[in-house]
Design a protein that fits this description.
This protein is mainly alpha-helical. Helix content is 73%, strand content 0%. It contains nine helices and no strands. It is globular and about 60 Å long.
Length: 200
Amino acid sequence: MKVSREQANENRERILNVAAQLFREQGFDGVSVVDLMKGAGLTHGGFYGNFSSKEDLIVQTCARSLGRSADRWKRWKSESPETTLSRIVTDYLSAAHRDAPGRGCALAALGSDMGRQGEAVRKTASKGAHDLIAVLAELLPGDTETEKEDQAMAAFASMVGAVMLARAVDDAGFSQRILHAVAVTLEKQAVAVKLQEPAI
């Protein structure tokens, strides 16, 4: 029985949502197409009606996850530019983010996996990282665009690395200290930004 276009779109959305969570929780190699479709409540045969390969699905889920993160940061910037950097740091380096990789940043959950994938996945990871760094660059001090980008790269790398390390260690106190130490360092940058802002 042929499904309607609307139902097909719903099925595709369900697959993408389930894949995004499972990949971030278990890694790309830890999730088979059969497991994925079972998690989405769909038959295995429906997968190739939506995606040409597992790599195609990985590319699309990564692009979507990273794009949503960048869109969220941009929305925060439009809502309250003066507190955006602090908000990003607090959210990213939270225990909640650390403890829920399936709902968090794809780069923090899958960065090492992405580095072992093919060109299409790595290209998607690169664009996602560029987009997130571009938002941070608009929020950090620097006399030139290059200086701002360098500051943003350092900040983002610190955040991603902190979450990855905080998840890896087996000591809860040590894990929290890692997040806190990086957050304090980046919060100082946020204060520096405010001090550099011209008085109105």
